[in-house]
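G., before I forget:
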Amino acid sequence: MKEYDHKEIEKKWKNKWIEDKLYETPQKKEGAENFYTLVEFPYPSGNLHIGHWYAFAIPDIYARFMRMQGKNVLYPIGFDSFGLPAENAAIKHGLDPKKWTYGNIDYMKMQLQSMGTMFDWSRELRTSDPKYYKWTQWIFTKMFEKGLAYKAETTVNWCSSCKTVLANEQVVDGKCERCGTEIEKRKQKQWMLKITDYAERLLNDLDDLDWPEQIKEQQRNWIGRSEGSLINFITEDTIENISVFTTRADTLFGVTYLVVAPEHELIDSALSENKSRIKNKEEVRKYVQKSIKKSELERQANQKEKTGVLLEGITAINPANNMEIPVFVSDYVLGGYGTGAVMAVPAHDQRDFEFAEKFNLPVVQVIAPIFVDKDNPPLEGKDISPRRNVQVIVKHPTEDRIIQIQWKQQPWKTFVIGGVEEGESYEDAVLREVQEETGYKNVGKIERIGWQMESRFYVAHKDVNRKAFSQVFYIELRDLEKDEITQEEKGLHDVVWVPIDNFRDFNPVSELPHIQEFFSVERHAYTGEGILINSGEFDGSLSTEVQKSITEKVNGNLKTTFKLRDWSIGRQRYWGTPIPIVFDPDGKPHAVPEEHLPWILPEDVDFTPTGKAPLDKSEMLKKNTEDIFGKGWTPEVETMDTFIDSSWYFLRYIDVHNKESISSLEAQKAWMPVGQYFGGSEHTTLHLLYSRFLQKVLFDIGAVAEMEPFRKRINRGLIMGPDGQKMSKSKGNVVDPDAMVEKVGADVVRMYLAFIGPYGEAGSYPWDMGGIAGIRRFLERLCGLEAYIEKEGVSERVEKELHKMLKKVTSDMSEFKFNTAISAMMIFLNHVEKTKSLTKEQYQMTLKILAPFAPYLAEELWSKVVAGSESIHVQSWPKYDHEKIMDAETTIAVQVDGKMRGTIRVPVGSTEGDVVQKIKETEEIFRWISASYELKKFIPDRLVSFATDTKV
RNA sequence: GGGCCAAUGGCGGAAUUGGUAUACGCGCAACACUUAAAAUGUUGUCCGCAACGCGGAUGAGGGUUCGAUUCCCUCUUGGCCCACCA
């Protein structure tokens, strides 16, 4: 056994590779196609955790593989080096954010290099470098010129601890994503980017992307396109119309009130103007102020309990039926979505339903669910006989029992059930049917249960299809006094008392949700589809088909709305890209002209958070502004959200020293779009969407030639602690990569992470100390292979296994299944050790396959066996030989009636006849096949399947 | 509440995409080497039984099929994302 001294090997090759500039990627390489492999760059937090290894070292395996496949592979790295932690270090420990950040970078660079990655460090970038942020600012000024960057009064998320504004995406569970402090709502003038202008394109262009469907779907949901109608409700005084957005115009006849958000403009004007008709101004003002100040968390915590205030003095007209309806203000309506006002349909919207119950508002059903009886479905070609009927749940006066009607001619168990006669009310029909069918006559209050519905079923004894409008009622008997029922009724059914919980035995109607709800004492709105009722000329139409016609009838407009909101990007912070805007003496904003970019981040600032931006105190910035633009001009003092920095960094790597543009079109032509982008799933709706947005903006101004930045995308999984929990210092389950590398070597850590599970599925994998020992053993055994070379002669078997392995590894790597690729290598090693036979060529090929996984060890062993050779990492990937994999004989599985009954060995390419003949000769298999059998399937060289079942 | 995804031995996971379920690794057990342990090696390791055989098993139940971990339906559990989005 040869010694595997990982420390020695790693030290040796790390330096050699740097000396030889092994990983510097030229813009073009003779005879090689360019391939851009990208991984999300890190924030320089101080040191690498095991997640970083998973993020960078595994894509490195892929990058190396592509390089050996003959591609000119770009695998760049940089640092997302602006951001809050640097500033927090400054505030807490009085450190210079720049020094703190750059010190961290130096250390992390060393760690990254220890991984054995093929990063091209000559292209390293840092977003806090003026040479970089000059172009971030340039992009901003272009957006400003196009009206895509604007300052607007909005309600913002304010973190009182970080003393800054956060984007919606940075608020998690109503708390600050960074520090966990509860978020308050504040109104503030705020720089915004108009991503909503691009919503449609961001959505549509997803279709053509070669990304996992899951990721695309998540972005689609985030963009949240919905098609609905804008409908105008005229208020009594006709001055203040209220426009609402709805996706359920079909329920318009069921609107019994309107609700506006606390932020709605109607409230603003009504409270300020004297002529407003609102009578309870004080009450409204108090409610609105309270709810706007309410934190996100409170708003969510109060989800169950609806609150609101009636706007006294204002009524609106339902344009569908001219009914007068009240108007409320409530915070269950969002100011920022749609028009900030909703039409409330309590019968068919759960939130409206809850609100109506609390405020005692009328509930009008306009959609009737359609119930098709599965046991007695309508038969085609039969007449349809429409009918109204009632179903009555009759409760025993003292016991928890209800009446079940057991039919004699049909296999039915039902409630009391019967038709409503012409001119008869539902309630009268209930009393009559109960008396006719059961004889009981002293009943309590009649209660309607759930919604009217349309049932469709076939009535066998009348040979018609019934389409019945039915309503369920509940009554409690006052006593058991009853009249004798008629002989005719007696002949039809028995009346039986059954326990209340047996309601599921009732068929078919008890399957209906609202019956079930009744018994579980929950009440819900009916939000599904159905047939329109109480809707004038639309009665009888299908709810899914009337949105357009109802909208047109009331002069509404069809309208598309998005959930996506504009991106708020201003930060009252220091350590970020300064917003390159100056204000003239009238306060009008102007972009800093390109010749003055980069608009430098001044260094004479005080970091103590005050709620005002630190740059506000920079004399240097003020002076610089006046010097350039003149007296009375003032600078913008906010910095940008760091997500902007990272929304275009991939365009910089490809031409990192360009002084004329973000990157030349020539460089873009060489590299863009990114061929493979690896990252974390947490960036699906943030970074990934923002990058696509900026790319499209840049495309529109001609700065880039591609409309989409990333051709392919893979979201990696999560590495958990050995206990299966998320790693955290407080749980004490953190795995320190540096210590692991020290102990077992970088190659082992890389390879173990690759072996832990498939890379392209965002699962979570626990770190297993035993597992990593297994990989270490594997590499140690590989070190021992050299001893077998040319010792035992040539084994055909080993040659075949080698090519099989090569084939498997090659295809697995293309699909990011590094785990099974490694498993194939292990299987091969097991074969070699068994036969102890290996040629020099076979050994070299094995090392090449190992090279992307364990770059240090492969290089070391390679240098020993191929004297004076170039690095193994510039060798080309071996090709497998199909001929060598071919077997002369193959194993065929024999199935009988779907069960495995044995295998036979036959020459490759045997015909069906040969195989059957062989089976007939094989007693232990043939005994399963009775005299009469049928050959169901013959797959050459694989399987044969028989059926003996004569029924088939 | 909505969307997406998953569920296979004691554990991480394989399975040619509808064709021999449990590859590979870990763990465990026995044995060898050793004074002993570690390391290493060899063998075994889904479950049941009247055990060289047969039956059962891929979260549960049903369906399609000669054949289902794979496709379809219902349900259960778990994960991720979103969430009073009209």
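The mean pLDDT of chain A is 87. The first helix of chain A runs from residue 6 to 19.

More on Monday.
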